[in-house]
Amino acid sequence: MACSATTRIIHNPLAISSSRSAEKSDFSCKILSPSSFWGSASLGKKLLSVNKAISPISRRSATVVAVSDVVKEKKLKSSSSVSNLLITKEEGLVLYEDMVLGRAFEDMCAQMYYRGKMFGFVHLYNGQEAVSTGFIKLLKKEDCVVSTYRDHVHALSKGVPARQVMSELFGKTTGCCRGQGGSMHMFSKEHNVLGGFAFIGEGIPVATGAAFTSKYKREVLKEDCDEVTLAFFGDGTCNNGQFFECLNMAALWKLPIVFVVENNLWAIGMSHLRATSDPEIWKKGPAFGMPGVHVDGMDVLKVREVAIEAVGRARRGEGPTLVECETYRFRGHSLADPDELRDPAEKAHYATRDPITALKKYILENKLASEAELKAIEKKIDEVVEDSVEFADKSPVPARSQLLENVFADPRGFGIGPDGKYRCEDPKFTEGTAQV
Amino acid sequence: MAAMLRSVGVASASFPLADHSNKLSTFSVCSLPVIRSERSPISDPIRGTRMTGKVITKAVAAQAENAASAASKPGHELLLFEALREGLEEEMDRDPRVCVMGEDVGHYGGSYKVTKGLADKYGDLRVLDTPIAENSFTGMAVGAAMTGLRPIVEGMNMGFLLLAFNQISDNCGMLHYTSGGQFTIPTVIRGPGGVGRQLGAEHSQRLESYFQSIPGIQMVACSTPYNAKGLMKAAIRSENPVVLFEHVLLYNLKERIPDEEYVLSLEEAEMVRPGEHVTILTYSRMRYHVMQAAKTLVNKGYDPEVIDIRSLKPFDLYTIGNSVKKTHRVIIVEECMRTGGIGASLTAAINENFHDYLDAPIVCLSSQDVPTPYAGTLEEWTVVQPAQIVAAVEQICQ
């Protein structure tokens, strides 16, 4: 794996990705080899010795290795592996474009926030693009995605137009949720994005329910349904009761769901290691009867490989998988977070593992596309993002009449007024000035 | 979660069924004291346009049309929990997307046997026995509702749904709005609540007061087999999330209900006994305490008007308002706590809307603000008893 075999100490996800001879991994419930975490030197050294024993490939020392060094090493070996590329040109460009869109969009969000175009709590996804792209680009339109408050890029990857997301952030009526949701509540019925939740863990049962519907359609309604649901959430959520309750139910009923943990090591200012008794989240899968996989979340191709298997499992009705993606957010928790607690060395380390840079290198090294083609994509994305800002700027703010419109799907729920008519028949109701 | 005491149902036999001495219904078909409101549901343009398909709001209307043939359908007698099950089964037959989730709803048949036999008929997936994880399976119901199913969540005891408050408030109530109207959450959340027979504090909770502020949900409370079935069906058919409050002591009430299909309105109150002197607003079990007090009051020469509000959120201000305009005195009798209860909200609503019609301040009789004690005597003093209702009426009518 040319673009990301750095720092083998940090992760040793699957045997498959180090030996590129396309061995299919066995996703039964066996425990995969452990990996260490950045931030705990002693733990790292302990696992280093374990890795040495298990892995057939010789390990480097526990220092940060530059991508270019490994690329050189791989080049020597890769003469026979031209046919073993993980992606085609088309796939590569799709992945690249999606990640660049995610990055450019989030950067624009930051700009717009500081210019006073959006308010409240805005959580940016910079650095984690490989997880969203790696998983969501494998899905069909009917598959469902559930996310947390860090949901802009999940929505974009799933196909929600950038215009609609930006409008929603600006609080305009053309937003995907008519301006009523905001940054933390991105929903799209058309693209099956089921939110956008502000409380962590709150979306996991909803995702479990969507997966339940898929199974119900197949087994009760006898429809041809192989829809899969992905639930994205962070390391902090993995200490929450709803996570464990849903792992249990999903494994119990073999629901078509993949639990994707975006472990970026920090829950606002709480380090994952300070909050969790056993920080290796992937291990918690087998405890409930499902495979647990750890993967390098800064490498979109590795994530995609794991995702293909996990989503495939779910589609075939074999049940859920827990995938822990080790990733990192380049910015603070939200735009209001001064981000003072994280070690600059840690940030610098992960900056060298930027997933977009890594994919670009892979594409160019393997001659899948030219520099010019990639530049063209970047330019196109810039235009898309600029256009989305323009569109959002020009869109109208919600009128007063919108205030009460979506409280109830059936507005009779507002009840019967003293005059005997349903409240929603009051002409003032649509104006938003009615007394309810 | 402790096992439910089945025997509590037996004790409820001591409560008289709806007071029939003043029934105005002329139908020999059913012994229900159902009173028609002034509006005719069929000719009313509002009802006419609102109701879709063959749903009728009041069985009374249909029977009025076919008075001659009404006699050929004698109705059938059943207990309240059976009425709930009948309504549930009819809806599950009608729409294959309707499913039930909860603890022990499947093989066990439900802690109060509301779902008995349904798992055998519909399978383990449609009547799903969940692990003990209220917040998560309620959330699962929300996710299922968003993706096309119509789940009914049973709280083994309503009090357990406190654990699901996160999902009920944030997701059931709010998701339709925060998604800009894209997703509907047609769930029904139901279960037994209220003060039973010495069940202890945690099994005797009244959650209606906690849930009433959640925007986006509707709450109804059933009190007779007739309205239990009707409200169950209406709740399942509603596109809104509905919380249906049942009462532990009312499951064994027996009544004769119509054979033909009927669905009640979720937003309307029920006139139990028309009168002239005072309006008594109540719901759920307290309806029976009120009717018991009404007997005494009638003997003393009073003429109370008793309304079972049924819809706890939103209030039916039309039925209530008409009553207030007639009697000018209001007493609210409820089982939930005094502080922040349904009665408190109702008092505020009536004061705001009908202040000019009141001859006396509204009297609200609620349970004491105490965790329900175990001891029988203490528990009796926690809830409102008929004697207190009689005294309140005498007081307000002076």
Features:
heterodimer; A: 436 residues; alpha/beta; 5-stranded parallel sheet; two-stranded antiparallel sheet; 9 strands; 8% strand; disordered N terminus; B: 398 residues; 7-stranded mixed sheet; 5-stranded mixed sheet; 35% helix; globular; DH_E1 (chain A)
Structural notes for this entry:
The complex is a heterodimer of chains A (436) and B (398). With 436 residues, chain A is α/β, with parallel strands linked by helices. Chain A is built from 16 helices and nine strands. The longest helix of chain A has 26 residues, at 89-114. Residues 1-65 and 69-82 of chain A have low confidence and may be disordered. Chain B is an alpha/beta fold and 398 residues long. Chain B has 16 helices and 14 strands. Chain B has a seven-stranded mixed sheet, with helices on both faces. A five-stranded mixed sheet of chain B has the order 9-11-10-13-14, with helices on both faces.
Unreliable residue stretches of chain B: 1-71
In angstroms, what is the radius of gyration of chain B?
20 Å
Q: Please report which band the strand proportion of chain B falls in: under 5%, 5-15%, 15-25%, 25-35%, 35-45% or over 45%.
A: 15-25%
Decide which structural class fits the backbone of chain A.
Answer: alpha/beta
Distance between the termini of chain A: 61 Å
**Order of H and E elements of chain A:** HHHHHEHHEEHEHEEEHHEHEHHHH
Identify low-pLDDT runs of chain A: 1-65, 69-82
> Largest sheet of chain A, described in full?
5 strands, parallel
DSSP helix fraction of chain A: 40-55%
Alpha-carbon distance between the two ends of chain B = 48 Å
State the oligomer. Answer: heterodimer
Mean pLDDT of chain A: 85
Q: What's the Cα radius of gyration of chain A?
A: 23 Å
Main β-sheet description of chain B: 7 strands, mixed
Based on CA inertia axes, which overall geometry of chain A fits? Answer: globular
Question: Within the largest sheet of chain B, what's the order of strands?
Answer: 3-2-4-5-7-6-12
Helical content class of chain B: 25-40%
Put simply, the count of helices of chain A is: 16
Q: Tell me, what's the shape of chain B?
A: globular
**Reading side by side through the largest sheet of chain A, how are the strands ordered?**
1-4-5-9-8
Pfam families (chain A): E1_dh
Catalytic activity (chain A): N(6)-[(R)-lipoyl]-L-lysyl-[protein] + pyruvate + H(+) = N(6)-[(R)-S(8)-acetyldihydrolipoyl]-L-lysyl-[protein] + CO2
EC number (chain A): 1.2.4.1
Enzyme class (chain A): oxidoreductase
